[in-house]
Amino acid sequence: MTTVAPAGIRFHHGSLAVPAGAVHTTPLGYDRDDIPLGAPLPLAASTELVHRLGGCGEVVVAFEGKLGDTLLALSGVRAALDWLRLRSVRVAVRVVGPYAGLIARTGLIAQPQAAAPSGRRAVIGDRAGVETHGSEAAVNLVLDPGAPPCWSTDGRAHPDLPARHYLALERRLGIRLPATAPFAPTLATGPNDLVEELRSIGWLGGLTIAAITATSWPERKDYTAQRYIALAEHMAEAHQTQARLLLIGGDPGDGLHITAEAPRRHVQVLHLDGVPADHLADLFPHCHLIVGNDTGLTHLAAMARGGRDGGGPPVIGLYARHSHSKWRTGLPHHHAVATTLSDRMHQGDLCPVRDAIAPDTDVHMDAFTPFALAQIGLELLDGVSP
Questions:
Q1: Is the model more confident about 361 or about 183?
Q2: I need a surface site. Which of 91, 213, 350, 360 has the fewest CB within 10 A?
Q3: What are the CA-CA distances from residue 72 to residues 56, 153, 379 (Å)?
């Protein structure tokens, strides 16, 4: 559901199917529901790609860029591996780079094994990863977030990046692959020392909210700790309880820092800075609500599963300047609150950098008042669609 929130901003529910006529799309060229699994598509495959990939004995998954771009591109890895399995091509798969541990949690990669006899290698990843590891590869597949369009088929648009990457490779490889929306893989989670320590001191009991303060673009995307605290206060007052707010920051450059603020009437605040992403993946499912700007840790929160019921808590992404639909996981519990500019970026499949949108076009994070976000969060926790 898409509704106008109290402050005039728009809320977009994660389970909403976007009609093809509502946004700028590129026709996929076929209806996936009408094509059996593994059957040829009514489009010509990339003969060279099919020939080279089918002759590889090893696949190297190599991402070295931004965390968020990596997580949203993992559906492209899934597409390539799905194709190899459908074709019964035996390959060894290994993951390199800083996100190898997180990618292993998706279940996309089987246990490491020896390369098949051909010895030819395919490298799939972002541009930096392919440039580092693909100099001698038979196949290099670069998953560039700017490349795949917003596809549409059977009257439905597929605007999120995981869907774009998966369907783009399906078209190139020429057969109906098995995955359906949502195309983003999820991350298995479990206990770790940080989770157990927070649980032991009572931080994961009661109303626990995580807020992402880390951002690579603070002048445009920093919602600020004070606004998040105000949001938590509104929610705590409404529930007549004390909330626990985890403020998740980036790496300050000198390792892990955990600091508590003086207790407030309605909110206890704990700053977590420099926590490794794999630890945060284990922590997020134990929260009741997660709110964050359009950044990698917010995508990570949406893809982490586990915690109380094996699923994930609602995640609200704040989108002031970029398309709220493209830069989401497509998972049903990953929602968006967006400005009018973000809605225009969504409708036209635009990018403010690529399409030179003036930086003063909107009011940025000022559009999202803590009270308005608190109302949306409360309704999500109560099982009501805002």
A1: 183
A2: 360
A3: 25, 21, 27
